Amino acid sequence: MNIGFDAKRFFLNRTGLGNYARSTISILARYYPEHNYFLYTPKINEQFLCLYGDRHLCLSPKIRSPRTFLGQTFHPLWRSIFLGQLIKKDNLDIYHGLSHEIPLLNKSNKTKFVVTIHDLIFLKHPELYSKLDILSYTFKYKKSCQSADLIVAISKQTKQDIIEYFHINEQKIKVIYQSCNPDFYEPESFQEKQRVRQKYHLPADFILYVGALAPRKNLITLVRALSLMPGGMQIPLVLVGQGKTYKQKLIQKIHELKLNNKVKFLNFVPSNDLPALYQQATVFVYPSLYEGFGIPIIEALFSKTPVITTRGSCFQEAGGPDSLYVDPYSPEDLAEAIKKVINDETLRKQMTVRGHCYAQKFHQKNVAQNLMKFYYKLKQI
């Protein structure tokens, strides 16, 4: 088959949506190399051609980018309008918009269109977005859902949100979970762990959070929970992620609670350092209010690190039956869960063993098989 992807975020986004694009294309190329893959992007960043998802796999796809002045200058116009002409010219069987969008003008009668919807946070929590963004996202995402032959929702929660807000027939929506970087699948060597520990000056025991420093991540609740811990159990908190305004609010709260020597910020950690970081954490805490899925949760499960996250949204889908779930608005509830994990070695071992077993459903081979199965079905329609 000729399979094309919206690769804008593959090349231009280093975090969530970019990782999803690189992971999806990588695992399909690895497990189904017999197909032809086309990447459509307004710009090219060469470093992402050797995919992060497999150190030994270097993809040689057919890359398409705008050649005209108009397309190079107005990228959204190229992706929404002109891209349809390229898709027809390349004789695609499948075109997959990996982040919420497919071209508004589809020129090919042969091509089947798939769109991945990650979340509808802007409708669930409109207070976090500008009115203009809400209007823009609603139009583009809804239009894509209506026009697509298949919608991939990355969680059951996202599927329910699509049905609720866009009134899409549920038969058109398939839940296909995400994978994570396979570097998390295997334990790191003692030497690698020591290298990472020394590089970031990590303490022997620490609570870990990985993700953006943003309001919906609810990190002030985590800091408050740390302040409620008894002195002897107040192990350091390591926050991995970037942010601006919210980070300043966090720093202010940390000062207020006199936790300056208990919270460590790591603004940027290269992906090859993350597995050893996760594997040395005492517990991974993800207090987010809402996510489409929550990749850091499965990174922690693959790393055999106990997970505490919040009730609601998609978190139980990602965390499974052996993670701990707390009220996202209760620092007291979160503090109790952290104390429980730190105090109980038997519980920690149970959480790590069973959590690792649960994480296998998100192994990249399973994700690739599920996605390709639906591609084949679409092609036959």
Quick synopsis:
With about 375 residues, this protein is of the alpha/beta class.
Could you name the key traits of this structure?
globular; 6-stranded parallel beta sheet; alpha/beta; Rossmann fold
Indicate the low-confidence ranges by residue numbers: none
* Number of discrete domains: 2
Placed side by side, the strands forming the largest sheet appear as 3-2-1-4-5-6-7
- Tally of strands: 13
DSSP helix fraction: 40-55%
What CATH architecture of the largest domain would you give? 3-Layer(aba) Sandwich
Mean pLDDT: 90
Structural class: alpha/beta
Note the beta-strand portion: 5-15%
Rg, rounded, reads: 21 Å
Question: How far is it from the N-terminal to the C-terminal residue, by CA?
Answer: 14 Å
Task: State the CATH superfamily name of the largest domain.
Answer: Glycogen Phosphorylase B
Major sheet size, sense and barrel closure: 7 strands, parallel
CATH top level label of the largest domain: Alpha Beta
- Order of helices and strands, N to C? EHHEEHHEEHHEHEHEHEHEHEHEHEHHH
Give me the number of helical elements: 16
Q: In CATH terms, what is the fold-level topology of the largest domain?
A: Rossmann fold
Could you explain how this protein is built, in words?
- This protein has 16 helices and 13 strands.
- By secondary structure, the chain is of the alpha/beta class.
- The protein has 2 domains: 2-179 and 363-380, Glycogen Phosphorylase B (Rossmann fold); 182-362, Rossmann fold (3-Layer(aba) Sandwich), CATH 3.40.50.2000.
- The chain has a 7-stranded parallel sheet, sandwiched between helices.
- Helix 10 (245-256) links the parallel strand 9 (237-240) and strand 10.
- The longest helix has 17 residues, at 131-147.
- It is globular, with a radius of gyration of 21 Å.
- The chain starts with a strand and ends with a helix.
- The model has no long low-confidence stretch (mean pLDDT 90).
